[in-house]
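Give me the fold.
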Amino acid sequence: MKDRDRSNGIANALVSCTFCHGTGTRIVRHGREVNCGCAFRAIFRACYGRYKACAAVQGSPGLTGKIQHYCRQSGRPHAGYGFKNTEFMADFYLIAKRVLTDPLEWGVFALHFLARADWKICCQQLRIDRGTFFHTVYIVEQKLGRMYGELEPYSLWPLDEYFTPPALGDKAPTSTPAIQAVPERKVWKVYTMAAA
């Protein structure tokens, strides 16, 4: 969800939110509009619900989650297979691992969301009180919801765009390559004179 995307903010905003009152945006210093945290938490909860559903499918025998997709490569149709459930679970985990740099936030995420422990067990394991735990849960949900919605070029949210392959005529989003090609260097041969 981009900063100016009001329709997505309204669709995900909590009607009872005391900051945005269901609009998805709130006004901060100098009259600047920003997206409200309740919309980001809703994005995270939707992605987390899909993560749990994918994890349930992974554990079931016979349900691999393999789908066939079509794309264009070099001007002609190309069919391929992908494990979208597994890819989504890996993306969900790796993005969280990259974003949550605070050990407390990662601990709450790993115990509460991945291991599905309740708040009492999390508080005992992390040696924190109940208020700190729920405050950290809200921070984690807001940080990850923002990242899942704003990741470029392939965000995890909206979920239907992630799990639906592009149509045959659509092009993949262009982005700058992370690793640029290094020009080939000439190799100089070193000759040594053999001792006579």
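The CA atoms of residues 13 and 157 lie 15 Å apart.
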